[in-house]
Amino acid sequence: TKAPNGCPVSAEAGNFDPFDTPYQLDPAEALRWSRDQEPVFWSPKLEYWVVSRYEDVKAVFRDNLTFSPSIALEKLTSAPPEAAKILEGYGYAMRRTMVNEDEPDHMERRRLLMDAFLPENLEKHEGWVRELVRDYMDRFIDKGRADLVGEMFREIPLTVALRFLGVPSEDAKELRKFSVAHTINTWGRPSPQQQLQIAEDVGQFWKTAQEILDRMRADPTGEGWMYDSIRMHETHPDIVPESYLRSMMMAILVAAHETTAFATANAFRTLLSNREAWNDICENPTLIPSAIEECLRVAGSVVAWRRIATEDTEVGGVKIPKGGKLLIVQASANRDPRHWENPDEIDIYRHNAAEHLTFGYGAHQCMGKNIARMEMRIILDEFVRRLPHMQLVENQTFEYLPNTSFRGPTSLWVEWEPAQNPERLTR
Ligand code: HEM
Asked: Which of 244, 366, 377 to probe ligand 1 with, by most ligand atoms within 8 A of CB?
């Protein structure tokens, strides 16, 4: 076989399948061969160009004109006609939001809607986020054992996201189920049978998002980022159109919730399986922010993103024809020895860890990155004080939702001896 640029496809490139176990377990490891031998390759199974080195991934992120993000939320596995019909029945019409909008519209919209995300405007949320974290911990702290994903990490980022957005939280449970469907629908490889159920869930998600939005629009005086967007729609309908509001209402829940829940789970797993690092942050919690960056580097929750070439171009010396779709693998870039010293080592003192590409880079870089960091910092801070002797339960198996991009374990079991809890000892 040949790639669309006429070059032959190597055996490794021909075999590459992101839905196979190696990539699902450890995408960076699964692409080690590529970083070493063929950093930009055509994958016939995926029909994407795969980019694996740090400089190349960053260059693609940086140039959002040549490499448009318009396909970022496109269904990776197209729907069979029956599934498309189900979605049609729901009037599903997901359009551009922010992450997949081209210039100049994107930047105008981003500027209008940026305020709530600025660090100075996030500070006011810290107090209630900490209370929420302590409240969830109280529920299991005397039990000696917990699945942190199920009992906490899946809950907190959703609650925080809803409150930040101004969305009433009664609908949270439903929304969670839908957002899993949205992830598989967008970045997964569902079977034709699964596609039908997923289409049903995505349709419901779309409908629920619309209902919530309608309720919010009935009284647009509320506080929160979706209210900001609604008000901007009233004053700047050309920059913040109706279609944006509807699509964003759905997309932002996934963007804010799943990503942060997974990143937190990945960070705890990483730190608890590197006991020295865990002990260091217990002794000195001011190390937590740099430990978080290192965890986002080696175990980020968004491991690959997508772009499409708007003209004939080149990445890392490889010709990519106009219309070529690219899978840019941040997890691989984050472990590229051309950029990082001892990339496979976890070093919470690494001076440049924050150069990881887990939040993307350039014009579209994650707007919520400081919210995610704040949540992770507060959660870690409470654990190192209240459960420093906690350990991972041995021999547990970790499972992941099969998809190219969103990565985190579906459960994370830890255990501890409640009698040793520091708060009990000092009582
Ligand atoms: C965009 C990752 C949390 C809102 C992105 C992008 C990535 C990403 C990879 C695309 C970047 C690019 O194209 O250059 C993550 C990760 C998170 C996280 C790993 C958690 C650890 C959040 C949260 C929110 C959020 C908590 C909101 C409350 C957004 C928005 C965009 C975005 C609005 C679109 C920005 C634009 O296109 O201008 N995020 N995200 N994210 N994220 Fe996040």
From this structure: 366
